[in-house]
Amino acid sequence: MVTASFRKVLCVLYDDPVAGFPPVYAREEIPTLTHYPDGQTLPSPAARDFTPGHLLGSVSGGLGLERFLTERGCRFVVTSDKDGPDSVFERELPDADIVISQPFWPGYLTAERIEKAPRLKLAITAGIGSDHVDLRSAIDRGITVCEVTWCNSVSVAEHAVMQMLALVRDYIPQYGWVVRGGWKIADAVSRSYDIEGMDVGVVAAGRIGLGVLRRMKPFDVNLHYTDRHRLSADVEQELGLTFHESVESLVSVCDVVSIHCPLHAETEHIFNDELIGRMKRGSYIVNTARGKICDRDAIVRALESGQLAGYAGDVWFPQPPPNDHPWRTMPNHAMTPHTSGTSLSAQARYAAGVREILECWFDGRAIREEYLIVQGGALAGTGAHSYSEGDATGGSEEAARFTTG
Ligand code: NDP
Predict the structure, then answer these.
(1) Which of 26, 123, 190, 329 is the most buried (most CB within 10 A)?
(2) Does the annotation count 375 as an active-site position?
(3) Distance (Å, whole) CA 165 – CA 151
(4) Could you tell me the end-to-end alpha-carbon distance of the chain, in angstroms, rounded to an integer?
(5) The whole model's pTM is what?
(6) What whole-number distance in Å separates Cα of residue 74 and Cα of residue 3?
(7) pLDDT tens-digit readout, 298-344
(8) Rounded to whole angstroms, how far apart are CA atoms 355 and 352?
(9) Catalytic option among 102, 113, 132, 152
């Protein structure tokens, strides 16, 4: 067992609940799953020091790693203070060996920060989506980047379906009438439609995108997708899918578009004025992939003009978004904070996945191929399939403008 050379594990997690930790849980337990939809097994660490279904993703939850890391002789530093040069994250980085961060409250690992972390060898994403790491710099520095593939893909697919329905049926304003004490049915239905019969498309049919297509099938909609690799003919036939060679072709025929590609150099800002202008007037976009895949101001303009009838999702850029981020106040949105992939159910899976990765790393065993994004100075595993080399962290320093007050 190796311990001495792994001294410091620096972990960035979101703040504990305002009402205190732990929260009062709504349910006693979560279902036990054994396999993901494609047969991949769930994380299988040697042990877990947490109760599945408990809050693990906030600072006091510590991903359930405290005991394990302490027993391995590591110094485990957990903080939510991650932005700006005086942040705990930046102060602790210079002698950190391993960084763990979640996409929901990302500890951005920019080129400048990687430069300040000469000991850093492993960056683990407790979730899916490693765009908060400058992959180009990680490649150059020989840092291993990995994520817990599949851990929250179904969680996000469920959220995306919920938000498509919320937009098309105009759920949030209707709920608002109930809470305010009114009974204004004409007002409540004046933007409300059935999704049945609409054309619904996904940008990328990977684990999440395909999950969304499968979940939308029973709604009797016409399903479309675009991706770099085409799905099998069997799957296309089973779901009645129309494949589009380009995102331009897809958006021009769809009423609802749900975005599910990773953020990397190829996908940054693809939803700009030009692409949104090709959509049917009154279309809807749901983006649970990454905020920066959309041009922030183009989305606002399209909602204000009516080109888009609605926009929803849970991903922003940067995170947390400054208090004056226009998506907080733009019309006809149904945004949540970045929550889809951090349900209590998902947390149990990614906490176990992080522990499995750490056990492999400490014991000199190979990390599962499907968890790898960068290894040995190149894209690897899932990273080689789904990402491109580059850096999508530019502008992340804006997160320091967020204040809780
Ligand atoms: P997968 O790797 O299974 O799927 C990603 C898909 O995107 C792949 O099919 C890939 O294509 C495709 N893709 C990549 N680049 C392009 C491109 N330029 N154009 C079209 N398709 C492209 O990942 P998941 O489905 O599990 O996750 C997808 C993303 O969702 C994550 O990267 C992350 O950003 C986001 N996510 C968000 C969460 C949240 O909480 N909101 C939680 C989890 C993930 P191929 O491999 O065929 O080349």
Answers:
(1) 123
(2) no
(3) 24
(4) 46
(5) 0.97
(6) 7
(7) 999 999 999 999 999 999 999 999 999 999 999 999 999 999 999 99
(8) 5
(9) 152
